[in-house]
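queue> pop job 88
queue> type: inverse folding (structure -> sequence)
queue> payload:
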């Protein structure tokens, strides 16, 4: 049996926000390998072009700000105009913000982080759900940060907890329509996003942040984007047909 038959993704339409990032790209390549048609959304036009080049000419790319409702409606409309429907929504766009004591944490940074993670995931679902049918899957990228608290990470940790609440409401609301909704909660990933986070944290910790995280992960290392993508494949596919409302931790045991 071909892999595409195993996962039931042949011809399915997968819309991925944050599509220019490492997890978005790795997931797009894996879903495409199993027969899915891909629409990628990101603010990074150059990154989208590079991502699409690795997938082939039938990949749709849309430059958009996920926190903007008009942009959200537009990227969904362009996906539907191109492919006719949406089967999988992978709400993956994210930003980190900053780390600071509460009295010094910038309010505009807090608002910007929640806008991308929470408002962005809400708007994606709001506009995509009318074009999804039974068997559809919504996946929201949360984080191990959505399962814990750490000093000074006000925007990111708050947003990641809020995404879990959004997922649970959506899972209950959409179950009668046969649409599954889950979060994937990665730990530290070996990519540019995490490297920037660790660069910011190193002076605050007074030690190398990458080593600090590796010591906090029972499996002793960062994940690769491809390992996160493998879990996205599971939640997108028919293999998870009876799975909804799940927090899927892919963190090497960090949240245990």
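queue> result:
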């Amino acid at each position: 049996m071909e892999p595409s038959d195993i996962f039931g993704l042949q011809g399915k339409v997968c819309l991925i926000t944050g599509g220019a990032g490492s997890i978005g790209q790795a997931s797009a390549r894996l879903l495409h390998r199993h027969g899915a048609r891909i629409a990628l959304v990101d603010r990074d036009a150059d990154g989208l072009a590079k991502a699409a080049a690795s997938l082939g000419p039938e990949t749709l790319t849309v430059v958009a700000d996920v926190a903007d409702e008009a942009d959200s409606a537009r990227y969904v409309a362009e996906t539907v105009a191109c492919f006719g429907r949406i089967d999988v929504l992978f709400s993956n766009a994210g930003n980190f913000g900053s780390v600071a004591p509460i009295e010094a944490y910038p309010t505009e940074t807090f608002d910007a982080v929640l806008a991308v993670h929470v408002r962005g995931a809400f708007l994606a679902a709001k506009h995509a759900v009318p074009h999804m049918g039974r068997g559809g899957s919504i996946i929201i990228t949360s984080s191990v940060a959505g399962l814990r608290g750490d000093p000074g990470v006000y925007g990111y940790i708050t947003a990641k907890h809020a995404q879990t609440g959004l997922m649970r409401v959506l899972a209950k609301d959409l179950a009668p329509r046969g649409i599954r909704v889950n979060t994937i909660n990665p730990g530290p990933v070996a990519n540019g996003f995490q490297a920037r986070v660790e660069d910011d944290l190193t002076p605050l910790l007074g030690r190398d942040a990458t080593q600090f995280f590796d010591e906090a992960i029972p499996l002793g290392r960062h994940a690769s984007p491809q390992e996160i993508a493998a879990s996205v494949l599971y939640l997108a596919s028919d293999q998870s047909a009876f799975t909804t409302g799940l927090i899927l931790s892919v963190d090497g045991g960090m949240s245990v």
